[in-house]
Automatic annotation (TrEMBL), chain A:
Protein purpose: The pyruvate dehydrogenase complex catalyzes the overall conversion of pyruvate to acetyl-CoA and CO2. The pyruvate dehydrogenase complex catalyzes the overall conversion of pyruvate to acetyl-CoA and CO(2). It contains multiple copies of three enzymatic components: pyruvate dehydrogenase (E1), dihydrolipoamide acetyltransferase (E2) and lipoamide dehydrogenase (E3).
Assembly notes: Heterodimer of an alpha and a beta chain.
Catalytic reaction annotation: N(6)-[(R)-lipoyl]-L-lysyl-[protein] + pyruvate + H(+) = N(6)-[(R)-S(8)-acetyldihydrolipoyl]-L-lysyl-[protein] + CO2
Domain of life where this protein originates: Bacteria
Composition bias type Low complexity, residue spans: 84-95
Name this protein carries in UniProt: Pyruvate dehydrogenase E1 component subunit beta
Start-end of Pro residues biased regions: 96-112
Segments passing through the bilayer: none
UniProtKB/TrEMBL annotation, chain B:
Organism of this sequence: Magnetospirillum molischianum DSM 120
Listed Pfam families: E1_dh
Quaternary structure, from the entry: Heterodimer of an alpha and a beta chain.
GO biological process: pyruvate decarboxylation to acetyl-CoA
Cofactor requirement: thiamine diphosphate
Coiled coil spans: none
GO molecular function: pyruvate dehydrogenase (acetyl-transferring) activity
EC number(s) on file: 1.2.4.1
Enzymatic reactions: N(6)-[(R)-lipoyl]-L-lysyl-[protein] + pyruvate + H(+) = N(6)-[(R)-S(8)-acetyldihydrolipoyl]-L-lysyl-[protein] + CO2
Alphabetical keyword list: Oxidoreductase, Pyruvate, Thiamine pyrophosphate
UniProt-recorded name of the protein: Pyruvate dehydrogenase E1 component subunit alpha
Name of the top EC class for this enzyme: oxidoreductase
Ranges where the Dehydrogenase E1 component domain occurs: 24-321
Superkingdom classification of source: Bacteria
Amino acid sequence: MPIEILMPALSPTMREGRLARWLKAEGDAIKSGDALAEIETDKATMELESVEDGILGRILVPAETDGVPVNTPLALLLLEGESPPAAAQTQTPTTANPPPPVIPTAPSPPAPTARAAPTATHRQTVRDALRDAMAEEMRRDPDVFLIGEEVGQYQGAYKISQGLLDEFGPKRIIDTPITEMGFTGLACGAAFSGLKPIVEFMTFNFSLQAIDHILNSAAKTRYMSGGQLSCPIVFRGPNGAAARVGAQHSQDFSSWYAHCPGLKVVAPWSAADAKGLLKSAIRDPDPVVVLENELLYGQTFDVPDDPDFVIPFGQAEIVRPGSHVTLVAWSRMVQVALDAAQILKAEGIEAEVINLRSLRPLDIGTLVASVQKTNRIVTVEEGWPVAGIAAEIAAQIVEQAFDWLDAPPTRVCGADVPLPYAATLERLALPQPDTVAAAARAVCYRHNDGGAA
Amino acid sequence: MAAKIDPATPATPPPQELLRLYRSMLLIRRFEEKAGQLYGMGLINGFCHLYIGQEAVVTGMQAMAEPADSCITSYRDHGHMLACGLDPKGVMAELTGRADGYSRGKGGSMHMFSREHRFYGGHGIVGAQVPLGIGLGFAHQYRGDGGVAHIYLGDGAVNQGQVYESFNMAALWKLPVVFVIENNLYAMGTASARHAAGDELCARGAAYGIPGERIDGMNVLSVRSAAARALAYARAGAGPFILEMMTYRFRGHSMSDPAKYRSKEEVSEMRDHHDPIDRLRQTLTDRGVIDEAGLKEIDRTIKACVAAAAEFAQASPEPAASELWTDVLTEA
Ligand SMILES: Cc1ncc(C[n+]2csc(CCOP(=O)(O)OP(=O)(O)O)c2C)c(N)n1
Ligand SMILES: [Mg+2]
């Protein structure tokens, strides 16, 4: 039996790829380990290697094919003494096996939003928006530099800094050894003296190696020096669960950093958020933690063309207006909340979805105003419930909007366990649209609430 | 104190031992190839770091291990587990995230453990295994059980500050540990010349008085001899020892690797002329230890073992939903 060479999954988040070119032709002898073809994903170009010896039989997907789903047969490899099957047909990607079930859920297109139509916009991925924010600010201010692991020659582990080394050179795009504690301390020291470092953590999980400098050096020095020394620094990188990378690589640090006076903490969802918040962070005179999300990097949104477009901290955004229940979320959970709102809409419940954007300072005013309208609030947090942002929101809403509440402020959080690897358990551990919808239904007491039923 | 590569011609073990080394390396190679295939099919997800090319390192070290010894490494851990005697079925089932995996599907490729085999992980945070490893050494010393902790770390991990805190304590308290630096020349996409000052990582313990040797990690017999020296030193109570194994990974850092940071020629040169398995196979045939048919038979047996592991790993069920909440703390 000839072996089918399938479109491989090359990264935790890959669903499809482009078959850029074939490196071997039909009839070529193949040794295990030989590169057969070049595959492009949104993150990288990689070679597909043969895992067996044999002869390249038939090529089923031609070069330069876009959007080939994972697991599509690309070619047949003939083993010793085999000849190609007669009726092999060129397969198009659409007839391929469906890709394996994907967890967490693939995002659906963003629901219509209530934001005031900005002037001119362009479509952009979160990844490119982050890169543009850094590039524009680096052009504007020669004191801004980027430092971290694989940010330069490798173009960023998640390709956020693509092209920056070419434009700004190794003096300002600095590849470090794997020494988070060391380079974070270095960056804080440079910031004390007035430079404006952007520290990239390959993922925020590794910021734990450096958290002493983020808190004890960056967050506290201004206060301890009686205002003499400030620390204009940005800590950024992907935060939270990605896809199946296990407990040590899947942690949400929202409440960790938002807990600390002396820091500002933002968590963009859309590409516009990413650009506007990161630019504000770089211009800010104080330390700012920018919590990005790997699963959002490849998603496309509208971004204002204006090079001075910035989003001030402490301003939440109503991304979907509604009158029956307020759903508060940030980062990737905004999409989960929007998907829940779609489910609820079909049942006659209009949810107002608020994208928090900024965790510290927290825009409690927008939340209170929303609760005054809906009388119910559900916060969706990817992280753990204990001492989380959702708990803080519940406390502040009770303090400031008690009389408007028709139900207790409610939380939908990540399960109170380290994130498991297994596919089914991972899905159960993270907030999903149906769990959010269920929480919203509960606070709406549909059977005795004519307003929402 | 640091020495050049291969200070002594490695001793040649008896034929049965040579065959055992060969089987052990081949098992890792075939297992990893299968894991790569299952990843491509979407049956393994997340991060998956293959050990292909580096098999001689853990195989040669384990050849000299005593039953009391313990082992700890990074996320590139499948080979270490197999070499420590863990069941390929349980390892593969953990890679697929199933109930019969060593961590019952909750750990995944980077986080696997076996108390029974004194294999302490499987750690996803670069460098973290090093102080944990000297803790294992501390426990060996505390109990006086004669064991040595084998602590594996990459060339990139060597730059983490906690490694030096560990060197200092290990030397200060003469802990029975061997630091095995697997220098595969790259930390992800960063060549060691771009991340490490000074060129000999085996010399990084010199200031603490820790002896270090640089070894040809593509030759399992050199590794085995070095392991004998280092483990004897640590076991005798003389303190820690550093072995810098010069090795190479034939595959990408993880499954997602743009392969732009090293040339194809470099990779083929290493694959074609420095494959540790080819090299031992050559020794086996040169010495007449085994013939072609014998080698084919070994190959068949190992392929069957790996195929059985892959089948087991696909047939094993997903963990039950209730498993989400167990094992967070000790259950009463
Ligand atoms: C503290 C920390 N920082 C960064 C990473 C991301 N990362 C994973 S492996 C790796 C490279 C490690 O290289 P090396 O120590 O040489 O080991 P190798 O992968 O070559 O076996 C990096 C940067 C991590 N897992 N932990
Ligand atoms: Mg390395």
